[in-house]
Amino acid sequence: MTEVAVPAGLTTAPGTPPRAFRFAAAGEGNPQEGGARKFIKLAQQAEDLGYDCFAVPDSVGPQIGPIAALGALAVATDRIRIATSMLANGFRHPVVLAKEAATLDVLSRGRLELGVGAGWLADDFHAAGIPFEPPATRLEQLDETLTILDVLLRGQECRFEGKHFQVRGVRGAPRPRQGPRPPLATGGGGPRMLALAAKHADIVSVIPPSTRDGKMLLSGITLDRTIERVKLVAAAAGRRFAEIELNWTITAVIVTDDRERAADMALAAIDKGLHPNLEVDVTLSAEDILESPYVAIGTHEQIADRIRRVRQLTSMSYVGVFPTQMEAFAPVIPLLRHE
């Protein structure tokens, strides 16, 4: 196994072996996926395909409720880990969330990964009549939530007096199966969010920055910008950086023998505005697309080689894919397993 070769500024010790790859699929249980009844089958399929984790997002839109859904998966699956990616912090009080998460960890026999974010989809908050606070306030709230969760998910008593939350003597119960607690995950694309993730999280999701209305910035998908975001995490984490697992999600998987042609087609689709959730703030080349960690183009072997290269340059090792990409990406998993 080769050592990690990361850019200057990252604090991986010389000779440190790379973190083993892990792979996550996801599902929402929305009508396009066949609704709640097919949700469990989708997770079971991910388990059969060799994925390590199955994650559920959080929205008031047409999807299943993530906490109840993971409770079902806890008994309907055997090996695959279950995760939230990411719960909107403003939807739940951290004391209540801690109890739900601990229960899920017990029911799943220690397979929970708890992802919590600051909340980014303003429309969800507005539709539900929940205040959508300014970014700085949401970051303060998330900082306090993760502090409280860290205590309660260890089964300890929490006494906390914060600006947004006050906890006056609650002991975490039930005691989670995992020790010292289930892993906490959070992430983002901006410096303040990444610094917060580096402070608290066991798993940091490195995502492209987005606009205020939730559109992903095209400039953020490039390899160079991704390396910059990882450096921000490393600088904020200090010595703890070696303990953090870095995650990213591939937004498109295109299996083809002609990588260059597929990249040109992807650029043409961007130019035509066929990606409504994308803010086109730069002009990219086909090479930019092919090097992007967030796009996987080529044969399965070429995609595997590219993912190895991404890990070498960034130390990111936890790969996520969207539900529609799950089967297309699955043959890559055995090519990278145990590396």
Share of residues in strands: 15-25%
Main β-sheet description:
8 strands, parallel, barrel
Radius of gyration: 19 Å
Please, what is the average pLDDT? 93
Shape estimate: globular
Number of strands: 15
**Secondary-structure element order, as H and E?**
EHEHEEHEHHEEEHEEHEEHEHEHEHH
Spatially, the strands of the biggest sheet line up as 1-2-3-5-8-9-11-15
**Helical run tally:** 12
Structural class: alpha/beta
In oligomeric terms, what are we looking at? single chain
The span between the termini is 7 Å
Percent range of helical residues = 25-40%
- The parts where pLDDT drops under 50 for at least 5 residues are 1-9
Protein model, in words:
The chain is of the alpha/beta class and 339 residues long. The chain is built from twelve helices and 15 strands. The protein has helices at residues 35-49, 66-76, 94-107, 122-128, 135-152, 191-200, 223-237, 259-271, 286-291, 300-314, 326-329, 333-336; strands spanning 22-26, 53-56, 81-84, 87-88, 112-117, 157-161, 166-171, 184-188, 203-206, 216-217, 245-250, 252-255, 278-279, 295-298, 318-321. An eight-stranded parallel beta barrel has the order 1-2-3-5-8-9-11-15, surrounded by six helices. A two-stranded antiparallel ribbon has the order 6-7. Strand 6 (157-161) and strand 7 form a beta hairpin.
